[in-house]
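User: I'm putting together a teaching handout on how multi-component assemblies are represented. Below are the sequence lines for each component of a complex, exactly as they appear in our records. Could you produce the 3D structure of the whole assembly as structure tokens, so the students can see both representations side by side? Please keep the chain order the same as the input.
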Amino acid sequence: MEDPARIMQALGGVALGGHSVQGGMGLPPSHGLEGADGDGRKQDIGDILQQIMTITDQSLDEAQAKKHSLNCHRMKPALFSVLCEIKEKTGLSIRGAQEDDPPDPQLMRLDNMLLAEGVSGPEKGSASAAAAAAAAAVGGGVDNSVEHSDYRAKLTQIRQIYHTELEKYEQACNEFTTHVMNLLREQSRTRPISPKEIERMVGIIHRKFSSIQMQLKQSTCEAVMILRSRFLDARRKRRNFSKQATEILNEYFYSHLSNPYPSEEAKEELAKKCQITVSQGVGSTITVSQVSNWFGNKRIRYKKNIGKFQEEANLYAAKTAVNAAHAVAAAVQNSQADSPTTPNSGFQMKDEEFQMDATESKNSLLPNMFTGSSGSFSLPNSGDMFMSMQGLNGASYAGAQVGAGVQSQGDTIRHAISQAVGYNDGLRGHLYSPHGLNGNGGWHDAPTPSSVTSPTEGAGSVHSDTSN
DNA sequence: AGCGATGATTATTG
DNA sequence: CAATAATCATCGCT
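Assistant: Of course. Below is the structure of the complete assembly, with chains in the same order as your input.
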């Protein structure tokens, strides 16, 4: 183990691609020829060895000259035999030092992790593609939306650094190996070096470099772990959705109250819509999985305490109702002649809001209301819609035909109204009636709210309630 | 600080 | 595997 170590020491000046490798190469300081005997020749040998050692530190010309003089030295044959002798004696220790490299379990662990994290592994195509793959691998899902861009970018960075470093080390290793081999071959003329020893040398160099690589891998792993934990922490650190986003989600929720389970496409659309709406602002972007979370939370919380959400339900139901009404009105052109209520007041005061809603949601909201949920949207009942509108405005419904207004409590009244409307509607019971979830409290079995269930029953009782 | 609202995570279930 | 239910952790307000 000594020979090679010294040689490496002698070659220590070789540049390693500009990278410090101090950690990996724990080279022992050079002592003299510790085990050498033969005091008489020791001095001579020491001198010559010294010359050999310093060869590499000198310019080529000098080195050539020195080598030449060495080779022509009269003592050369003697020295050679002496070296052979010494070598024979130390040969045993060399054999003993022969270490095979068992697949280091830790290295394998690191490799596996890097592979799993997408840091190592096949370098496919562009960096962005690789980054995407990496992100997908980490996310463990199809959730490769904008939210992860930060994470992805950092992971890509790590990946790039890792690969460049790895490349550099590999290159340095190769250079170093060839350099050493050349030197050894060269020196084999001055001292006995068998090809086997060169081979062994190469092996040792490779081991050294692979230990450096392991360090690199380790630190890369650490970096990924840190990045990951930060990322997870950041995810836990929630940010409330923007008002508009919540609005959009709520609109969908309450307009699909009978079956508030948006399909994957619907979720995507909602997420997209939320992004667009919030795009300019600093507001958080919303992902599909966040939409899923939101609906999950919303369903459970709504079901848990319908009362608490009633006001909100009315609000959004009315909103969509306004949309619907407006659309219907536009389509049918003032066919509300029958309407028992006074359409104008309630209708118009919401109009401006409608404008806004209509522009931002005309594509999905209306179709949902009419096709998605009820299938039929016979007009005659539009009066109910106006009723609900007024109710939610809180202001003007009092004078309207629903006499219940006597009680000042707006909430209860709105609740009652909503129930009444929920039962009557031509827009189908799901509009925002809590009865949308079958009396048992579950949505599960009613994916397709058999809609046309005529308003016959229910309506009566509820109505009577309200009017009293 | 306390508290409710709310987004996210976890465990359970069919 | 998606939905639910429970729980966690933070936000926003008072």
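A couple of points students might notice: Residues 235-236, 238-241, 246, 289-290, 293-294, 297, 301 of chain A lie near DNA strand B (CB under 10 Å from a C1'). Residues 195-236 of chain A form the longest helix (42 residues).
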